[in-house]
Each structure stands twice: as C-alpha cells, then as structure tokens.
Amino acid sequence: MAAKPRKTTPESIAAEFLAHGFVCTGEVATTLHLAESLGKPVLLEGPPGVGKTELGKLWARFHDGELIRLQCYEGLDEAKALYEWAYGKQMLYVQLLRDKLGDLLDGATDLGSAVRMLGAQADAFFSREFLLARPLLRAILATGPVVLLVDEVDRADEEFEAFLLEVLSEYQVSIPELGTIRAAGTPRVILTSNDSRDLSDALRRRCLYLYIDYPSFEDELRIVESRVPRIDRALAERVVRFAQSLRKAELRKQPGIAEVIDWALALVTVGADGLSPETLRRTIGALVKNREDLERVLTDLPRLRA
Amino acid sequence: MISGLGRFLGELRSAGITVSPAEWIEALRAVEIVGIENRERFRAALRVTLVKRAVHRRAFDEAFERFFTAPTGAGRDARPDTRQKRGARPGSAGQGNRPRGRPPISPPEADRPPRGSGHPVTPLAQAIEALRAGATVRHGRLRRVVVGRRPDLRDPSAGRDVARTPFREIARRGAPDDADAALARALRRQIESLRLGTARRVRRAPRGRPYLRRLFRESLRTDGVPFGLPKHKRREDTSRVILLVDVSWSTARAAGLFLALGGEFLRFGRQARVLLFVDRPVDGTDLVSRWVASRSRMPFAALLARVGGLNLAAPSDYGSVFHRLLRSPARPRGRRTVLVVLGDGRTNRFDPLPWAFAELADGLGAVVWLVPEALELWGEGDSALERYLPHVDTAVEARDLAGLARGVRELVRRSG
C-alpha cells in the first residue's frame, strides 16, 4: 500500500530544510509547496554551486522517499533513461533452458510449427523478469514516495528533451512487449539546468520555474554557520564578505556556496583566526578554481579584503 | 480578484512577458492555494507560474511592484523613477550611474603605434587592408570585412542620397525630423531591395546524418544482427540569431534602423532574440518584435524608454556587458547560433575585457559585428574594436543605411 502523503506547508518545508543546513527562502518553500499541490515538475535554474541538486535530495528526505537521479549527458537516450531488455540474461536463460526448449518443441513436425510453438513461449522472455528499469521507469513503477531528479537536463540532446516532455506530461510509458505502464502516483520531479543550452518553451511551460541565485549576505552567513559549526562568528562574516566581493569582481568562475563552505572548513582546519595574506594564500585554492582568477585575486587582495 | 489579476496580466504583457492561457490558469490555481494575505508568498506563486526565463524575472518584479503597490498621494505611478532623465549625455551622467566601483582602466595609449598617416600600421588595420584587397590573412577569427563604396566627391548627387549619408553626418546637420522622415522612406526601399536579393533555394534531405554512436551500441548488444543504420532525426536547418545591440546615444539611430531592417527577415522569439545594452544587456525581444510588427511605429527612442532595466544615460561599457552576458542565462550558445553585434566598440575607457567576448564567441556558429562608423575610425580613441574583432568572423562597415542593409544581407546569409 502506498505510504500516506505527508502534508506540506511552506513553513514545514523551510523548517525541515533548515534542520539539514539548507537555508530555504520563501520563494523556494512556496514553489515546493505549489509543486506538491499542483502535481507539477519544478525546473531549477541558477549558477553552478547554489544547491540545486541538494534541493532535490532534501525534498526526497523530507518525504522519507527514494531519490531517483537521472544524470543527463550528451547522447543520453531512451535505453539509458527508461528501460532496456536484459539481453545477457535472456541469452543465459536460453542456454540453460535448452533441454526444456527441446522438450517443448518435440512435437513439431516441420519448421513452421516449431516457430509457432516457440512464438507462444516468446512472451516469457519479454516479461518484467527481463526488464531493466532505468531511472524514469523506476520513478513510474515506484509505489512509495519518490523524487525524480533529472540533473543538468540542458546537457541532454533536444530529442531526449522532447521524449522527456512526453513522459512528464502523462507519467506513463509504452513498452511494445508489455503495453502501457502508468504511474501509481504522480512522482515529484525536479529538473535542474546550468544553462549550457536553451531549453524549449514547451518544457518550460510544463514546469514551475524557479531561479536560485547566490544567497544574500545574511543567508550565506547562516549557511556557513550551520554547515561549519566550529567556525568563529567573526571569521564566518569575513569569509562570506570576501566570497561576496569575489562574486562582484569579474572572475571567470565565481565561487559557489559549496566552495565557500569548503574554504570555511579549510580555514577551521588550519586553525585560522583571521584572513591574513599568508592564510589566504595557503587556503584560497579551496575557493578559487581557475589559474587566471587566482592570480587576479592574489594581486587584488588588499582591495578585496577591505 | 480574477478581473484584478487579469489587469496584471496586461501589465506583464506590456512589460514584454508572454503568458499563455494555460500558464494563466496555473497561476490562478497557485494563488488559490497560497492565498493573497502573505505578499511575498503571493508574489512567489505568480512568479514561479508566470515567469519561465531568468531574463524576465526583473521585468516581472518591476511590474509586480507597479501593480500591487498601494497608491500614494501622487497616484499609482508615484513609483521611484529608477531611470535617468533621457537625453542626458554620458558626461553629465557621471560615474554615479555605474553599478560598480571599478575604476576606469585607460587603454595603453603609449603602446599604440601613431595614427593619422593613412597607412595601415596596427595588425587590425593591416588585416583589414589585406582582406579588402582580397588577400588571405590571419587576424584571429576575422576572415571578411564588408565595406561600402566610397562616395565620389566629384559627383554632385553625392551626399544627397540619405541612404549613403553617414549617421555621424546626419547628426551633425541637425533637423532630425527631416532626416528621420527621409531615412524612413529610404528604409522601405532598402527592405524591398533586400527582399529581392535574398531568395535562396534549400534542398532538404529526407533523413539526418548516420547516428554512429547508436549504431555501435546496438550492434554490440545484438552482435550486429540484424544490421540497420540508425540515423539522426533531421533537424530544422535554421539558425538561432542573437542580436546584441548598443542603444547608447551615439549608436541609437543606427540601432533603430538596424532592428527595423533586420526585423523584416527574422522571426523574433524562437529564432531570434534581441538584447539591448548600454552598460548591461537587457532582453528586448518581445517589445522590439511588437514594435517591428506594428503599422504605426512609435519612435525608437520612445520604445527604448519602455525597456525596463536599460539605463540610457549611462556611458556604454562593452566589457561589463560581455561579462554579464557570459554569466547570464541569456548567453548565446551552440554551433547553430549566430551572434550579431551592433556597436562602435567605444568603451569609455573602461576595461574592454576582450577575454569575455572571446569566451562568448567561442563555439558559436558565426559572429558578425556591424560597426556604425567609417572604417578609418575603427580602433581610434576609446574604441576597443582592435581587441574584439579577432574573435569575429565578419566585420561590416555600417556607417550609413546602405551599410546596415549590407549587414542585414550578411546576417540573412549566415543564418540561412
């Protein structure tokens, strides 16, 4: 029996996420609440490292459900995303059941009758026993609460996007050998995009759209303090202020929240009590991941630390 | 409540955000769920259901503030005017308009070779001279420079043809109304001549290219029996065009004419997007497409005043625009994308950030730059064209209406 769905409100979502160190803005909490109520997928966009994937994981945890993740890439096709037949297993079974097959075909007088008799048994090899369910089908077949995270959908080809559109609109798939399979309940779906390609209007229309930007100073401070509990308040403030000033500078790769947390952890690990030039030089690699950016930051240190 | 929200829908549409009936119904359902008591929650419900692109978020927020702010003593339009008074020159705007405290970086004038002798001295000038002469040169990515015929000064009719009168000359002569009326007439003639000249025959293949990756994968699974050659689905062979148009006071006339010309040959929205900029890029696709389609076209300056987020009084800052675009969701991407820049490349001594433009151009199908200035002025003074053009495929001298038409012809040729 399917688990009874948990009742959500924006407040309960925000509180639960905060307990796991994710500072959830009002807009994010309202969007997830609406996605629950309207049964719509959520399309998340935003710069890398702001917690889009993390949001999906926490949503699954919120419902005590399974997180099914489909990582998209160029060349991803239906076989990798939906299902495929376990060819090796089918072959193995045919080999092992050779004697049994011989018995079954014993009464065949000619080739035509043998083929007809074999055809009557073919369904056994195209049953759920031999079906390899991939993430989309697993989400559709799931009986308990489930969150399907379609990560970096912009990396997949346009053809796959069209296919996804079809699955997301009906939550059903057709397998020629088995017929149409419908979802037991509407799965919760999150799609994330880093904007490496413009997604189609049709896909956007079917989703609730949420853009997650870098957090404000106060929010980022709360995130750092909740993720790095051992950090001193004054140091945390300086870390966040420095990271925010880097985002305003015109760097090739801006530091995401994950990098800021890594840097704060690095500072705590080396026992730093301030951002001296020497400490910065030793730990800045956790925050800045590009050689040219690194040179620029080290050159501009006095201005950025101000 | 529904009729009140219906008026908000009109506000959104006039701000350039297209909302389908399905999205509107979705928004009403969302409002029903979250209620209207909590303003931020109400705003979030409308935003996640009605805005589907990051570039529209700002316009939505402005429209929301305008529409759902209680009227004050000065009436509903008593919102703070974030725009500078129009018509102010960059000099009068000063640094106060700049979003950042980044100090202007002066170009290395001392490193530049002397100019004015008329001989090609810089690598760009040498490359342009060689390209014009039909030679094969390498100057980064630049392969083609399209230049108009120079007017014959002995011809008494030279200078009377408004289509061949440089924009700079028109501005100097004054009487802008007469000039604009003459330009409007000339514009119609240019559109007709472009229409007659751009017919192209396209042969369509019934199927796409062989899908080798899939062939190997399927063959491995079934030992290649039965053998079939899977093919990609045929893609529509149309390019996506991004028009990145400088609308600062020095290029606004050329920008308006270019959009009016180009708009006749592009399908705005899915196929073409318009990004307008002075010191930051702003999506103007919907407004420009409606402006191009309307019969009684309002002046281009009036249209610009309606584009939210555009600070027309700011000095143009190409480096900042390219860098912002690089990081924004509106960044042009893909081999089937053609980027067309219209601008003089004058950065007002701000850092031109050529690497940002190089990254933008990298991986695009084609990059075309229309310069509304005479060739002799390219790279002069505060122009950073010398640093941008190595990342461009074709540079077009578009100092007059005829030059813009050449640019549009190039655009149509590139975008198929």
Description:
The complex is a heterodimer of chains A (306) and B (416). Chain A is of the alpha/beta class and 306 residues long. Chain A is built from 16 helices and 9 strands. Chain A has a 5-stranded parallel β-sheet, sandwiched between helices. Chain B has 416 residues and is of the alpha/beta class. In chain B, 41% of the residues lie in helices and 8% in strands. The interface between A and B is large, with 35 and 44 residues.
Question: Gist?
Answer:
The complex is a heterodimer of chains A (about 300) and B (about 425). Chain A contains 16 helices and nine strands.
SSE order and pairing:
The complex is a heterodimer of chains A (306) and B (416).
Chain A: H1 10-19, H2 26-38, E1 42-45, H3 52-62, E2 66-71, H4 78-81, E3 83-85, H5 87-96, H6 98-104, H7 111-121, E4 131-133, H8 135-141, E5 146-151, H9 158-170, E6 172-175, E7 179-182, E8 188-193, H10 201-205, E9 208-211, H11 217-227, H12 233-248, H13 257-269, H14 277-283, H15 291-299, H16 301-305
Parallel strand pairs in A: 1-8, 1-9, 2-5, 5-8
Antiparallel strand pairs in A: 3-4, 6-7
Helix pairs in contact in A: 1-2, 11-12, 11-13
Chain B: H1 2-14, H2 21-34, H3 39-50, H4 57-68, H5 90-93, H6 123-132, E1 144-146, H7 167-173, H8 176-197, H9 212-222, E2 240-246, H10 252-263, E3 272-277, E4 281-283, H11 285-293, H12 300-305, H13 318-327, E5 337-342, H14 354-361, E6 366-371, H15 385-388, E7 394-397, H16 401-415
Helix pairs in contact in B: 2-3, 8-16, 10-16, 13-14
